[in-house]
Amino acid sequence: MYKLLIVDDEEHCIATIKNLIDVNRFQISEIFECRDGLTAIDLIRHKMPDIIMMDMNMPYLDGIGFLEKCGALKTTAQIIVVSGYNDFKYTRPAIKANALDYILKPVSALEANQALARAISNIQNASVQPAMEPTEEESAEASIKLYIEENYASQISLDLLESKFFLSKECILKSFKGKYKIGVYEYVVKLRMEKAKYLLENYDYMIYTVSEMVGFNDSNYFSKAFKKYFGISPRAIRAQKSS
């Protein structure tokens, strides 16, 4: 369960964020809120939130000062800036403070929840994964691999995997290739091509049918991709079967 702190000097902005985020999906058990940076610093000391969603324009202690204080406190909280200012004057300190994201108002539900997904992913990577046994089969990478193997004929995207497994795209790409020595998209193509070759060699399906069965909507594109992968066209594979 995770604790979230929302810092904004406008009450309606706090209410909007609370309405947009999916607390059940992200297992957010407590939400703290305050309207100035100084109060927020006290809350960080005493409540130790896991995630902070903050505005840059606040009384008493503005966003820049707040980020500097967070750095001094060495908080491990994931910081998401939600600001009305698209100005390097404000984005620079956010970048310097390793803020996870910088979202412009008016924030959408998609943006807010994607940022939270990345925050939860970072928290899990920092605390949960090191405690896992190396032989544990239910690792994130193994789960993603199994999902791809079961759904390779469907449209698989990094956005989909990010949403399903609560891991950032960067983490998925890096960890998957690190473990299996092949990229996510390369693995999808490998599964599709090997299945297509098997179907062409062992069944009498039309080429366009095989194309659809392994996830291609365009049979011409499938034929080109197949020839590039194996160095031989689907028709040639079919001819070999007939001879």
How is this structure best described in words?
This protein has a five-stranded parallel beta sheet, sandwiched between helices. Helix 2 packs parallel to helix 3, helix 9 runs parallel beside helix 12 and helix 10 packs across helix 11 (219-230). Mean pLDDT is 87; it is low at 131-138. The chain is built from twelve helices and five strands. The radius of gyration is 24 Å and the shape is elongated. The longest helix is centred in the middle third of the chain and has 19 residues, at 109-127. The protein starts with a strand and ends with a helix. The chain is α/β, with parallel strands linked by helices and 243 residues long.
Principal-axis shape equals elongated
Count helical runs.
12
Q: How many β-strands, per DSSP? A: 5
Category from helices, strands and their pairing: alpha/beta
Which runs of at least 5 residues are low in confidence (pLDDT < 50)?
131-138
Largest sheet: 5 strands, parallel
The amount of helix comes to 55-70%
Whole-number radius of gyration? Answer: 24 Å
State the end-to-end CA separation.
Answer: 63 Å
Calculate the mean pLDDT score and round it: 87
- Strand fraction equals 5-15%
Secondary-structure element sequence? EHEHEHEHEHHHHHHHH
Strands of the largest sheet, in order across it? 2-1-3-4-5
